[in-house]
Amino acid sequence: MKISAFLHFAGFGIKTILLRKKEPILGTIILTDKCNLKCKHCSVNNITAVVHPYEQIRSEMQQLLAMGVRILFFCGGETFLWKDGEKTLKDLVAEAKQMGFLIVNVVTNGTFPIDLPQADLLLLSLDGDKERHNAVRGDTYDTIMENIAHATSDNICFYMAINQINKDAVRSVCELARDTKNVRAVSFNFHTPYPDTRELALSKEEKSECCQVITQMMKEGAPVFNLKSAFPYLINNNFPTPCHQCVVMENGKLSVCGRCIEVPGLCEECGYFFVAEYTLLFRGNVKIIWEMLRTYLKYI
After folding, report:
1. Residue 14, CA atoms < 13 Å, CB-side half-sphere
2. N or C: fewer beta carbons within 10 Å in the chain?
3. Residue 123 carries which DSSP code?
4. Strand extents, DSSP E, the chain
5. Contacts of residue 157, Cβ cutoff 8 Å, sequence gap at least 6
6. Global pTM value
């Protein structure tokens, strides 16, 4: 991370904590909900299958930038399906950097060739070892690993949503992140139970067991891009929601925290690690602040 970016985020954090501000710093733009997969845990794919045009995405970037957002995520659907004429995902990342976003990350399912060195992180969905991943996402594991091996940069971070299918594969994904070329780290979430995927949710005891495994893997040197201090809050779902410092833009509609905020009762069952981490950070939790400094400076 550049010194200028670090100083900007430090200033934002101090102001937010001391003055209890609610301005956003992290924004997500949904490029499309079109996806080439039908994952068992996903409730937001191919609802419209519309690929939003470049000028709209650019306008949304400008709107987020004006709000103070400096960490930008591009999400789907599948982001590598986005295209508008000659414009591709590479152009969007480059445009975001030129506009003034300090960190630009992209979320992908990894089934397309990985050539995006312009992004700070590529959060690539890997949901377990081969057997469990394929049980969640279809027969894609070998394709993904082949694409990772031929990636043009080492900016990949595994992105695993832990659920009833893959809860016993946390260790193997940590080891894979540690041992695989071009992979920088692994980031976890717990499954957030939309009404149509409630059967995949973990119990409090199962969350605790998963966090114990992640903690042990951290001790063994696995590159985990999460904050251990937030685990008790995630296990008990007693962190503040929503996260006012995070916003999502989809087809011109702005939502605080995430798209799931409109689903009744879902905030109380939130499984997103970053939501717990950010809300605790901006409430001034000293352990979270210190751990986030160390983690972000190491992996971004």
Report:
1. 6
2. N
3. E
4. 26-30, 71-75, 83-84, 87-88, 103-108, 121-125, 156-162, 183-190, 246-250, 253-256
5. 121, 122, 123, 124, 177, 183, 184, 185, 186, 187, 225, 299
6. 0.95
- Spatial separation of the C-alpha atoms in residues 111 and 226, rounded to whole Å: 24
Distance between CA atoms of residues 239 and 278, nearest Å? 10
| Tens of each residue's pLDDT in the chain, 300 residues | 778 888 899 899 999 999 999 999 999 999 999 999 999 999 888 889 999 999 999 999 999 999 999 999 999 999 999 999 999 999 999 999 999 999 999 999 999 999 999 999 999 999 999 999 999 999 999 999 999 999 999 999 999 999 999 999 999 999 999 999 999 999 999 999 999 999 999 999 999 999 999 999 999 999 999 999 999 999 999 999 999 999 999 999 999 998 888 888 899 999 999 999 999 999 999 999 999 999 988 888
Tell me which residue has tokens 């091996």.
Answer: 149
**208 phi and psi, to 5 degrees?**
-60, -45
CATH of domain 24-33+42-299: 3.20.20.70
